[in-house]
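Q: I'm a student working through a structural biology exercise. My instructor gave each of us a protein and asked us to get a predicted structure, then write a short paragraph describing it. Mine is 3-dehydroquinate synthase. I'm not confident about reading structure output yet, so if you can add a plain explanation after the tokens, that would really help. Here is the sequence I was given:
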Amino acid sequence: MHLTFYTIWPCALFNINRMQSISSSSYAVHFNQRAYDALNGHLSEKSYSKIFIVVDENTHEHCLAPFMGRIQGTYDFEIIELESGEENKNIDTCTQVWNVLSELDGDRKSLMINLGGGVITDLGGFVASTFKRGIDFINVPTTLLSMVDASVGGKTGVDLGPLKNQIGVINQPEMVLIVTDFLKTLEERQLQSGFAEMLKHGLIQNAGYWEELKEVSHFKLMDDLIYESVQIKNKVVLEDPTEQDLRKILNYGHTLGHAIESYFLENVEKKALLHGEAIAVGMVLEGYLSKDLVGLPEAQLADIKNTFLGRYPKVDFTEDDIKAILALLKFDKKNSHGNINFVLLKSIGDPVIDIQVPDELYKKAFAYYAEN
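A: Happy to help. First, here is the predicted structure for 3-dehydroquinate synthase. I'll explain a few features afterward.
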């Protein structure tokens, strides 16, 4: 793992479009120009002793200068660069960042700004939440996935080996700043990955939103849809901030999807899947389980399958793959008392939580996914 840091100073500000902020429990999600207004106001009021900005090599190259150019005031920023990729979202990386914070005289009055995708916001939030027993942090998501999912809701953490998000805490940021111009720096595959989470929001909360998303043919002018997804996630999190009940619905497709993602990540002979690609498979599989266990209508199941297979490459699974993936289910964070708990759909927009699945249904679900 390679980690570097830099000292940098900001330059000029310019205007972009405005969107209304979304209030959460103890912070707000600000969009575009309002994001920079909120940040500048916050920095001028708080008088932080140190300001650290965590980036990876991609956001350092494509996002850092535009971001710094919109900050008003005179501050000395320490830039900490991490290597991108889920494989670097681990305790070893955290240890390196904690050491850098200490070497650069970080204290409890420091601020960490996490400028990047879900790996950066998850890991950066966890590092900030645990350094000196907690310093302030701000999330600035730069990918579609992190804008609509990872940066909102206070979940922070890292992976334990290939196992997703096994170590972490729920701790809220000072604010979340969503600047949709950053989406212009992303490849189509990354945008598609984030779009899977938006489709999930429709499946678990709003059938009309699902229908609207199905019509999206390109990723331009996405502000209104991103805003709707953030509202959906924020509404769920406000009702259940610590995932005791309702918030579990956000994990639809993730029980099998995370196991698939972990399996493909740890097997070097497999091409790693992006989060949204694995979750897309998981949503089809768990749609099949929904049909058998809670009565999801056949037509809606077919709609779910056709929608995801129309957008995401089909993944081939051998019998050995399936066996290994199912073995990973025991590590899912929703499990309790030895039970593997699923979020399933009674219908599109109507989820149900804590459903146990008979073993014989898993292979049937994979067979359904594999059918043409």
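A: Here are two points you could use in your paragraph. The radius of gyration is 20 Å. Residues 188-211+241-370 form a domain with the Dehydroquinate synthase-like, alpha domain fold (CATH 1.20.1090.10). It's a good idea to check both against the output above yourself.
Q: Great, thank you!
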